[in-house]
Design goal:
The protein is mostly helical. It has one domain (26-199). 59% of the residues lie in helices and 4% in strands. The chain has helices at 26-35, 42-51, 58-66, 93-105, 110-117, 121-144, 149-180, 182-195, and strands at residues 74-77, 85-88. The chain has a two-stranded antiparallel ribbon with strand order 1-2. Helix 4 (93-105) crosses helix 8 and helix 6 packs antiparallel against helix 7. The longest helix is centred in the last third of the chain and has 32 residues, at 149-180. The chain starts with 25 loop residues before the first helix and ends in a 10-residue tail after the last helix.
Amino acid sequence: MISVARPGGRRGGGADDDDASGFLVERDLVDLEKTYPEGMTAAQVVELFKARGIKLSEATFRKYVQLGLLPRSRRVGRKGKHRGSMGLYPATVVRRVNDIRQLMAGGYTIEDIQRSFLRFKDDLESLERGLSQVFTGFERELKGAELDGARRRALNAELTETRRLADDLLARLEHLERQIVSPLERAARARAFSSGASGGAGDLL
């Protein structure tokens, strides 16, 4: 779960078959996270959903950020002189928007979602990204360190075991989140799919 090569964020657990409602399935989400490892702009996320027939505006996207349903962007400098910077959101933000739209299509209000369903997701995603960065830094430092063979092997073994423990911790936290929060979330999605809905609640489109 902490592997650098693996995209960060939540796995979701949807089927790989295409979703007739227009929502993204797990295969789509994983591909996006691999394609945009540095993140996506709000405009890119909005266009992605529009292309699938799911109504979403930049104003709504930014409202979700203000409500705490989506993480805030980070400023990244543009290549070239005098080009300023742009705001990038982690590619996992697409998962979150996908979740929100599914829940709203299932009849839940934005207040329901804000209060119950997504309250732990951001913290879990941030924890996973943070741990991944820490392990990447440790590995980089270890490769450049002047150590004898035995000491290097011992530290590598300790790092591997610590990574395993971190994976286990995240898995346990995600399991708790699924047990406590996700049953209602899954019910909402099931209602959305059974009704064939692809839109959301009228006040935040």
